[in-house]
Amino acid sequence: MGVKSLTSKTDIFFDLDHTLWDFEKNSALAFNDVIEELKLPFSTEAFLSHYVAINNEYWDKYSLNQVSKEELRIGRIRDTFAKLDYQSTTEEMLLLGDNYLKAMPNHNYLFDGAIEVLDYLQDKYKLHIITNGFNEVQGKKLERSGIAGYFKTVTNSEMAGVSKPNPEIFNYALDKAQVKVDQSVMIGDNFLADIEGALGVGMDAIYYSQSKEKVIPQIYHVQKLIELKDLL
């Protein structure tokens, strides 16, 4: 296959959003709640048609320390409102953003196969989370989706003071888990943050992407979570 065997691993680090937790589906449901609650003059579909790409761009910038948490939270709403030609106040933007973050953990769809794979892996490995998500939201997502109990440690970017792909968050997570890098593997959907970040500290990685195209042939790639059972 041209890639290293993973049989010597003892610890697995998962990304959360877009990997186990179905971010796009849960996010859309949360925004629908808030847009209805605030009686905003546009549909959820119209809002999301602009917001999804804008949000992804802001998270990439946040990962690279190009914007702060506060700039991310207000900027993604402000830029979406601008695309919709909707005149608003900073107060209303912050209210939408805050209410969205509160509503987000109320919807907890996981990707197909997530529970089956976690059940399978927990008997063979110690499982952990490394996420760039916000502290106040990620814990609720894990608890309310019923998967918190699978993970020995959870590391987020606010704890570590930096975001993936910065090597420091991976080293922080390894120290917290008390495991060596060569015994560990990272599983995630974001090639920059998860895969390049892990490789940057010498950690093996598995790229979870529903696209059929392999970005680098030397890296394991799964299109469905259930395929992890064949690798690990």
Automatic annotation (TrEMBL):
InterPro entries cross-referenced by the UniProt entry: HAD-like_sf (IPR036412), HAD-SF_hydro_IA (IPR006439), HAD-SF_hydro_IA_YjjG/PynA (IPR011951), HAD_2 (IPR041492), HAD_sf (IPR023214), PGP-like_dom2 (IPR023198), Pyrimidine_5'-ntase_YjjG (IPR052550)
Domain of life: Bacteria
Listed GO MF terms: 5'-nucleotidase activity
PANTHER family in UniProt: PTHR47478, PYRIMIDINE 5'-NUCLEOTIDASE YJJG (PTHR47478:SF1)
Protein name per the record: Haloacid dehalogenase
Species whose genome carries this gene: Myroides marinus
